[in-house]
Amino acid sequence: MRIAGADVIVTCPGRNFVTLEITTDDGLVGYGDATLNGRELAVASYLRDHVVPLLVGRDAHRIEDTWQYLYRGAYWRRGPVTMAAIAAVDVALWDIKAKAAGMPLYQLLGGASRTGIMAYGHASGRDLPEVLDSVRARREEGFRSIRVQSGVPGLDTIYGIGNPLDRTGLPTEEVWDTRAYLRHLPTVFEAVRNEFGPELPLLHDVHHRLTPIQAAKLGKALEPYDLFWMEDCTPAENQEGLRLVREHTTTPLAIGEVFNSVFDYQTLIREQLIDYVRSAVTHTGGITAMRKLFDYAALYQVRSGIHGPTDISPVGMAAGLHLDLAIHNFGIQEFAPHTTETYEVFRRSYTFDDGYLHPGETPGIGVTVDKEAAATFEYRPSYLPVNRLRDGTVHDW
């Protein structure tokens, strides 16, 4: 079964998405997500100009060989653009292989290890009453686990509160105050626990804003509220920094949504400095690479927590769900439902019911792309914000 052609689809049904469509000589079609928020056209060009010409004529069944060919053969390895492009090819080929087998992808990964995939939803608000209302809304939608994000008194805007997208062509710039955040956040979780009790799993995303000692201080302050995890508490390019955090708090740690290979995790997993791996299939080389990453993590009792925001397309979400269902060391799945317009472009078989996701039983990954619908939503430049301290210094976020 040979690859006959490939097409790169760029569409913006509310957010920008890049999708690779691979077609075989016997008519099977597979899809892979290549979306890289704020740098989408870089990956689209990488695919069109440098990857698609290499695919035509290759055996579509040779997924591992194709992965190694694109990774090792380019010489310039890793990085988000390269790994997103490789992920798109990899997922599309797995989609094709599962369709050829007449099975949902998770069956080719060893079959189901659970009946459903626990998902967490996003609750946020500018102040405490809005936060509590948002938690109630997520619970009414069926979520059994909830990430809690809150505004901070004295700060006008914070990423994660409201719509982060900007359509002016330039990133918005937000002001950050670490001390104010560290003072305020424990009071938020105290109020949420008092309102909703001890059983509801609660999560929080720090979004890389703290130094290791600040992260350790926050983790310790949050221990009375029994978080499921504290996410991206410090920029983890400095993997050794997590040693300091780990020494001072028992709050579970999740890291890695900006990582794109197993090499980013080596120290963190081997030394058991984290509890959950946060990479997305879309940004970490696809199913092939993620399965190896999770198998490595399993040796050290580290579990999965696949990144699942709305800038991962339904194709990327579906790929993650098949992994979630199959691997043994599953932890939890982030789930931010897409817009109605997005679901008009990406027709999906995965479902969400009573707090649990399932990829469905459709052969392949269970997502098809309506190219006519996609063509009606033209690409629009947009960027995530930039973070600055009160004195104007660019800060991690």
Automatic annotation (TrEMBL):
Gene3D superfamilies: Enolase-like C-terminal domain, Enolase-like, N-terminal domain. This is D-galactonate dehydratase family protein. Transmembrane segments: none annotated. Pfam families: MR_MLE_C, MR_MLE_N. Signal peptide: none annotated. It comes from the Bacteria. Residues 128-252 form the Mandelate racemase/muconate lactonizing enzyme C-terminal domain. It comes from Pseudonocardia adelaidensis.
